[in-house]
Design brief:
- By secondary structure, this protein is an alpha/beta fold.
- It folds into three domains: about 140 residues, Rossmann fold (3-Layer(aba) Sandwich); about 240 residues, pyruvate-formate lyase- activating enzyme, CATH 3.80.30; about 55 residues, Nucleic acid-binding proteins (OB fold (Dihydrolipoamide Acetyltransferase, E2P)), CATH 2.40.50.140.
- The chain contains 15 helices and 20 strands.
- The strands form five sheets. Strands 1, 2, 3, 4, 5, 6 and 7 form a seven-stranded mixed beta sheet that branches.
- Strand 2, helix 2 and strand 3 form a beta-alpha-beta unit.
- The two termini are about 35 Å apart.
- FE3-S4 cluster binds next to helix 2, helix 4 and helix 8.
């Protein structure tokens, strides 16, 4: 879960609680909270750009907000339920503000909005607007319509318009490492997953459109771009000459942008890891040696039930091919434990695959049955305590691998892109090409710069080092 930082988008003076004549002149304030994946972070940044254009300023306190937006995630039950507990608190704030003569418009965006639609306004009547991810280009208009009528609106149509073409171009970047959505939606229909229902069919933006936005982000201070898509390596956007471009073609084109030092992409599906993309990892220096390639399980029986379109052996062979093209590539994956029908032997097969591959960074989850997905209807749902035990066993091995990967960096000298201030005074936080987080004493002016760092210490999740003289 990520909150956009207010200082990234002009924080004005916070008003005292209680309306006054001066407040009528003050800009309207928006509080935006983002749950879920990087695509939601990207969407939140785009919505914020549009709202700033419409005269809003950002606040970090919902008590001061005229407009509250929750950009939500539906991937697991916990993620979706968090939204309703937040909405309960926001209802109380709305009531309190109303006693002080202030109105508050509460909007729910993102994947819960798309999946649950009218159910949200039924469950929480304080909600004024429900807006699905395909309608963000109409956000201002929808807010205006709620204000004009005082009636709630639920907008979850997939109308096929190109929302990207209609959203404002980014004017400033919150970090030297910026996200750029190049592809949306998914046609894979893994049996556990809500994304094909919440984000719709796969759609790729054109190379020209992406290049324009990438240049604007670099002009605004980005040194690294992470190209985003639910199924990003299935990218097949219009490359001009009425020829579809692959992700490798796109990366080659973006690598020509002056000032763009690093390119990453996520999330990829093993089935779409084409030879030209693997080759690109060997050829394009800007393409970072890190790949998030979720495998989900190491059991072929479970992979088939998940509709993943690859076996465990396919995955291992694919990794060997990728390592042949880029020997130092660091690998990352997602795992689901406790998929319906998963036995101890299946769980063991996942551990075997993990040991065979070796991962630098991972995310692992207990299976969560999601409404409308085929897996939620399967017999053989796994008891909660078995899921917990399997998750702990898997995470123990994964954590060992991550610690070993980080330990192996101690004593090396690596280029680090510094992104932000650390918690310790005088320290900045950056990333290595392998995506490891590095803390080092540095000047504030080093944010946005790539400095050479000698790695002195490793922890489970991060490294510590010393900047070397230029
Ligand atoms: N497009 C990506 C991932 C999308 S969702 C892919 O193809 O892998 C991010 C991760 O959430 C998934 O990789 C999966 O591990 C996890 N996930 C998705 N649905 C889930 C569910 N119903 N229960 C538990 N984890 C789930
Ligand atoms: Fe979900 Fe990813 Fe499977 Fe698509 S490929 S259905 S986004 S897990
Ligand atoms: Fe969640 Fe939607 Fe992303 S369900 S993971 S916010 S695509």
């Amino acid at each position: 879960m990520t909150d956009l930082r207010a200082e990234d988008f002009l924080p004005p003076r916070e008003p005292e609680v209680g309306a006054s004549a001066a407040d009528a002149m003050a800009p309207k304030r928006v509080y935006l909270k983002t749950f879920g994946c990087q695509m939601n972070v990207y969407d939140s940044e785009r919505m914020m750009e549009a709202l700033i254009r419409d005269g809003y300023a950002m606040t970090e306190q919902p008590e001061h907000a005229d407009l509250v937006i929750l950009n939500t995630c539906h991937i697991r039950e916990k993620a979706a339920e968090k939204v309703y507990s937040d909405l309960g608190r926001l209802r109380d704030i709305k009531q309190q503000r109303s006693l002080n003569g202030r109105s508050t418009l509460i909007a729910v965006a993102g994947c819960v909005a798309q999946a649950e639609g009218h159910e949200i306004t039924r469950r929480q009547t304080a909600v004024d607007l429900v807006v699905g991810p395909q309608s963000y280009h109409r956000l201002g208009q929808l807010i205006g319509a709620v204000q004009a009528t005082g009636k709630p609106i639920v907008e979850t149509e997939f109308d096929g318009e190109d929302k990207f073409a209609q959203m404002p171009a980014p004017r400033r970047v919150a970090s030297p490492s910026a996200f750029l959505t190049i592809q949306e939606g998914c046609d894979k229909f893994c049996t556990f997953c809500v994304v094909p229902y919440t984000r719709g069919a796969e759609f790729s933006r054109s190379v020209a459109d992406i290049e324009r936005e990438a240049r604007a982000l670099v002009a605004g201070g980005a040194r690294e771009l992470t190209l985003l898509g639910q199924n990003v390596n299935a990218y097949h956007g219009d490359g001009g000459n009425s020829r579809p471009a692959s992700l490798a073609d796109l990366a080659r084109c973006l690598a020509d942008i002056d000032g763009l030092a690093r390119i990453r992409y996520m999330t990829s599906h093993p089935h779409d890891m084409s030879d030209d993309l693997i080759q690109a990892h060997g050829d394009i220096p800007q393409l970072m040696p890190f790949l998030h390639l979720p495998v989900q399980s190491g059991s072929d029986r479970i992979l088939a039930a998940m509709n993943r379109k690859h076996t465990s052996a396919d995955y291992v062979a694919l990794i060997a091919k990728i390592r042949a093209a880029r020997p130092d590539i660091a690998l990352s994956s997602d795992f689901i434990v406790g998929f319906p029908g998963e036995t101890d032997a299946d769980a063991e097969a996942t551990l075997d695959l993990v040991r065979a591959v070796g991962f630098a960074q991972t995310f692992s989850f207990k299976f969560s049955p999601r409404p409308g997905t085929p897996a939620s209807q399967l017999v053989g749902q796994v008891p909660e305590d078995t899921k917990t035990a399997r998750l702990l066993a898997l995470q123990a091995v994964l954590e060992e691998q991550q610690a070993a990967f980080n330990m192996a960096s101690v004593g090396t000298v690596v280029p680090v892109l510094f992104e932000r201030h650390g918690r310790e005074p005088g320290f900045l936080v950056g990333r290595t090409p392998h995506q490891q987080m590095v803390h080092a004493a540095a000047e504030p002016g080093d944010i946005g710069k790539i400095r050479t760092v000698a790695i002195a210490q490793a922890r489970q999740m991060s490294l510590r080092g010393v900047i070397q003289p230029a």
